[in-house]
Design brief:
283 residues; alpha/beta; Purple Acid Phosphatase, chain A, domain 2; 6-stranded mixed beta sheet; 22% strand; transmembrane; Metallophosphoesterase; Calcineurin-like_PHP
Length: 283
């Protein structure tokens, strides 16, 4: 009888643990927020540090509304960014849920000393979002790029060229046909899907930022196969799931894959806390 009681107790503990993990994955982790800081080049004598903040994949929907976005915006502003980058997917499914007035009001609150820059993600095309996305981002103070360049001149006279690509799943990404020819001190590529960055290894970019992968959303320690399953079955990028990558055989070209803020397919995260990336750039 004692053995049976012990087995029953272990089984109960197991059930409670599983229930706790499920509760955490659906009700707690998707609403947490982490800030990940990085230096993306070396500080040298005579250079000034500038702060770029990247967010991605907001996936606004019924269980992640403007009230949740408010927390994200507050955290962005706490970083006192010089430049803010958004790498696509504003709504999860525009046809099912949208709240344009309140979402724009929150995005307008994002403060940046020089620029707020955005690109298109695949979710910015579906469900009627294609007809609204440009208006929403421009109304929010973002410079929206679709196969376009945008340059920023810093207060020390140094310049950064940003190239924003169209979405590679539902758009038509390509480098700008009228690429600016004057000299820039730093070149940054923005692309929603990270795999796309490999196509531009020879295009003299110093750094690239992307999103889309969500880190698989589910990353259970010691069970990497579950993460790979989540990535492959949600049409996300399994090659670049999240974090910093050095890509290319002889290139120093770094790609950062932001694991995003929101959720898609299922409203759960486990082991992939929503993130804001903060890049310190010395020029």
């Amino acid at each position: 009888m004692k053995v049976l009681r012990n087995i029953a107790l272990l089984f109960l503990i197991f059930i409670v643990a599983i229930a706790g993990c499920i509760f955490y994955a659906f009700q707690i982790e998707p609403y947490r927020l982490k800030v990940h800081p990085y230096n993306i080049n070396q500080q040298q004598e005579g250079t000034t540090g500038y702060k770029m903040v990247q967010i991605s994949d907001l996936h606004i929907k019924q269980d992640f509304t403007n009230q949740n976005l408010k927390k994200v915006v507050d955290k962005i502003n706490e970083q006192t960014p010089d430049i803010v980058l958004f790498t696509g997917d504003l709504y999860d499914n525009y046809a099912q849920y949208n709240d344009n007035e309140n979402i724009v009001a929150e995005l307008q609150r994002i403060q940046a000393n020089y620029a707020k820059i955005a690109i298109w993600g695949n979710r910015d095309y579906g469900g009627g979002a294609e007809n609204e996305y440009q208006y929403l981002m421009e109304s929010s103070g973002f410079q929206l790029l679709k196969n376009q360049d945008y340059s920023v001149t810093l207060n020390n006279g140094k310049t950064i060229l940003f190239t924003g690509l169209d979405d590679s799943l539902l758009g038509n990404p390509s480098l700008p046909s009228t690429k600016e020819s004057r000299h820039f001190d730093y070149h940054i590529l923005l692309t929603h899907e990270p795999n796309t960055a490999e196509n531009y290894l020879s295009s003299n970019y110093d750094f690239a930022v992307s999103g889309h992968s969500h880190g698989g959303q589910i990353n259970i320690p010691f069970f990497p196969a579950l993460k790979e399953f989540a990535l492959s079955n949600t049409s996300l990028s399994s090659k670049y799931s999240g974090g910093m990558y050095s890509i290319g055989n002889t290139s120093n070209f770094n790609l950062y894959v932001n694991t995003g803020i929101g959720t898609t397919h299922i409203s759960a995260r486990f082991g992939v806390v929503p993130e804001i990336a903060v890049f310190q750039l010395f020029l």
